[in-house]
Design a protein that fits this description.
Helix content: 40-55%
CATH superfamily of the largest domain: Zn-dependent exopeptidases
Distance between the termini: 126 Å
Structural class: alpha/beta
Mean pLDDT: 73
Radius of gyration: 26 Å
Number of helices: 10
CATH architecture of the largest domain: 3-Layer(aba) Sandwich
């Protein structure tokens, strides 16, 4: 057979394989084009005034590491920024919407005026982004556990202050609300927290974060380390993600209200009983 025909057959075979891979990925809801959006940049340092660790630098570093890992796995990667420049939110959304069928992943770190605030969180808005948010969050939390961060993340949950259980939430952030493709925003920990801030300064840990986000994008199962009960109970159904911290707060209020009602009822019964006894004693006299 002439070399020309062999070359054509080879090209057709490659095309068929590529098409099969694309169809398989599509069938499982996986996009082969990923838009990575490192938060902040340029004059927008991110964080709160006086914050020691710059958020914009850490977002970009994790984003660039994530790009390298995804490209090595055959993904097409588009960056909203790949250097220290400021990109307005509408421009970030426009970049994402220019690639129909892609997936948008925004990288951020959290901050707070209270140094004790901690935890990882993953946000989504569109209903078709919920499973992606769950996949990424489970992998990132499992990755954090390999760095002995789990105790820090869930310390307050276990001790009865469940507001620190960030979990997976549906929120209308601009880049999630305005994008027309599946989109998630990952908060990789609190830079204002001594433990999580020191970990964010570690290149090894940032590589771990990027690796776990990549696993989540690829819908790979999280490592075998079991998630805490609080994370297993996070619901992804409906329009609102029920975070155990919030439901616990409501139940605690209901419990407190019920206790007050019970005490009031008990006090009333006691008062009535005392009155009856006095009346009986008076009759006997």
């Amino acid at each position: 057979m002439p070399p020309f025909f062999l070359m054509n057959r080879y090209r057709l075979t490659l095309f068929a394989i590529a098409s099969l891979v694309a169809l398989t990925a599509s069938a499982f809801g996986q996009s082969r084009t990923i838009i990575i959006d490192p938060g902040h940049g340029g004059h927008d340092r991110g964080g709160v005034p006086g914050q020691r660790i710059s958020e914009k630098d850490k977002c970009l570093d994790v984003g660039l590491r994530l790009r390298r890992l995804l490209m090595a796995s055959g993904y097409r990667v588009i960056m909203t920024r790949d250097s220290d420049v400021f990109i307005p939110l509408p421009t970030r959304v426009a970049i994402a919407n220019a690639y129909p069928g892609a997936t948008f992943v925004s990288i951020h770190f959290n901050c707070a005026s209270r140094s004790g605030a901690n935890g990882l969180a993953t946000y989504y808005y569109r209903s078709d982004s919920a499973s992606l948010a769950q996949s990424i969050h489970r992998n990132v939390v499992s990755g954090a556990q390999t760095e002995n961060l789990a105790q820090s993340i869930h310390r307050n949950v276990v001790s009865g202050a469940p507001t620190e259980n960030r979990g997976i939430r549906r929120r209308g952030f601009y880049v999630l609300r305005r994008t027309s493709i599946p989109s998630v925003l990952v908060e990789c920990g609190f830079l204002t927290n001594p433990t999580e801030g020191s970990l964010a300064l570690s290149a090894t840990y940032r590589e771990t974060l990027a690796g776990q986000i990549a696993r989540g994008i690829q819908r790979q199962p999280a490592p075998s380390r079991p998630l805490t009960a609080s994370l297993r109970s996070v619901s992804l159904g409906g329009d609102f993600v029920r975070v155990p911290a919030e439901s616990f707060s409501r139940s605690r209020k209901r419990s407190s209200k019920s206790a007050r009602s019970h005490r009031s009822s008990k006090s009333s019964k006691s008062s009535k009983s005392s009155t009856k006894k006095k009346h009986k004693k008076s009759s006997e006299d």
